[in-house]
Amino acid sequence: xxxxxxxxxxxxxxxxxxxxxxxxxxxxxxxxxxxxxxxxxxxxxxxxxxxxxxxxxxxxxxxxxxxxxxxxxxxxxxxxxxxxxxxxxxxxxxxxxxxxxxxxxxxxxxxxxxxxxxxxxxxxxxxxxxxxxxxxxxxxxxxxxxxxxxxxxxxxxxxxxxxxxxxxxxxxxxxxxxxxxxxxxxxxxxxxxxxxxxxxxxxxxxxxxxxxxxxxxxxxxxxxxxxxxxxxxxxxxxxxxxxxxxxxxxxxxxxxxxxxxxxxxxxxxxxxxxxxxxxxxxxxxxxxxxxxxxxxxxxxxxxxxxxxxxxxxxxxxxxxxxxxxxxxxxxxxxxxxxxxxxxxxxxxxxxxxxxxxxxxxxxxxxxxxxxxxxxxxxxxxxxxxxxxxxxx
Length: 392
What we know:
Elements: H1 5-9, H2 16-22, H3 26-48, H4 64-92, H5 94-98, H6 109-143, H7 151-174, H8 186-226, H9 231-269, H10 280-296, H11 300-309, H12 326-339, H13 348-371, H14 376-385
Helix pairs in contact: 3-4, 3-10, 3-11, 4-6, 4-11, 6-7, 6-8, 7-8, 8-9, 8-13, 9-10, 9-11, 9-14
């Protein structure tokens, strides 16, 4: 799981609310973390591997959107590996982790491992949030024909730069001036929590707006492609809208418990004594959402692949396949065109107008195909409704 409480736990003088959740069934906590992250990791890799009997996804050209989807899955896989490694050490070496609670201890390795593993998990999941935001931006730019593979460099700079900057800044403010004196006041903790949850809240607020505008732009593109809005175009627009809805649904399911849990724990921190009887229901709700986070946070990777591509099946094809060399197909098509020249000479103005219309239609098809990548039915309907397929 990914929570700023894990970094706070590395402080020997941690607050009472963090102590409450971290001391609640630690063996069960670590076991559930390992189980949930392992299941998600295996299923995510299974989803991404090529399958027998399925042709590889064919795109009109390489798209930044497909690259971003893959990077989101990679961030989830690496974050899940961090969860498994940290929980395994905590579960297998309880005495090693117990040394974190020693205020003036001489062994720095327990605290170093605690901080390093927590930073690794936070950094990877935070980068996943930024990549998801970039996916929403890129989807809108693709429809507006303002994006391409060149923009992926800018996305890399923004994603990794902001993720590293916020992570390092939050950790530095939390542990300033030293690890033994952190959490002495809210001025240490609040900036750390803000830098952790800023990208999460950005996705919750900005992505639905960008997705809604992208769906509206897709509808306009489909209507303007042939001047009519047929049932095929309507279904394509609906499926793209449904895909965006599934992405946001997975995100809300996996991370809403974090926001609820953090709100409850902050409320407990402001109380003079969190063990008072009137606060029993608040403590129970905080512990319940804590366990829910353990299950849902690592499952994001697998659930996202379902939202991106649907269920791809169990039969994995690990055989190497020879890819078609682009210039071979180009040369063969050129030979075919030169061997059988057209006996009809069309007027140049008609030929030019049709060429422009075909190029515009190709660009529209490419934009829609990038957004509906992984949906076989959408790709087939798009091809059949294309003017090129109809021999226009």
